Amino acid sequence: MSTCPNCGAESTGDSAFCTSCGAPLKTLAAAPGAAPVAPGTTQPPASAYAPVGQQGPVYVQHSTGSSGFADFVTFRRMVSPILIQIAFWVLEIGSLVLHIGIIVGASSEGSPGWIPLVMIFSLLVWALLIRVWLESFMVFFMINSNIVRIRRRLGD
Questions:
Q1: Would you say residue 99 lies in a domain?
Q2: Residue whose C-alpha is closest to residue 19's, from 29, 9, 27, 28
Q3: Cα separation of 141 and 85, whole Å?
Q4: Is 14 within the bounds of a domain?
Q5: Which of 16, 49, 71, 82 is the most core-located residue (most Cβ within 10 A)?
Q6: At CB < 8 A and 24+ separation, what contacts does 40-44 make?
Q7: Each residue of 44-71: pLDDT tens digit?
Q8: Is 148 helix (H, G, I), strand (E, B) or coil?
Q9: Contact 4, 21 (CB under 8 A)
Q10: Domain span including residue 126
Q11: Is the separation of the CB atoms in 133 and 95 below 8 Å?
């Protein structure tokens, strides 16, 4: 059992990080090219680490010796998430154009006044459905990305 030097919480077992605040409980070897962590500090320097998402004080070490192209050709960087983001914008713009076309066509033909309201509601629903559908694909890439980050942080 150990005590977190950052928040004072008790941790069980031999975990490397505090389950309460995410601070490192053990000293980790710095990656090549990373700024050294000053002795006696509980937080890594901002120049060597960056916070990940909205999940609290979890830090990931930046790799300085790798190029984007090398990551691309060795499959360390995924292309599919970029394609999914492009598909999102193409589908959203296509949906917007389609719905605007229906609204304009319906209003010029003397259709009932509720049709534009239904189309606006439909546009909002489709925008949300497209986003949720494409996010379901992104989950797998986010899992992979987080596993890679954890592995790099723990030193393979």
A1: yes
A2: 9
A3: 12
A4: yes
A5: 49
A6: 42/5, 42/6, 43/6
A7: 555 444 444 444 444 444 444 556 777 7
A8: helix
A9: yes
A10: 78-153
A11: no
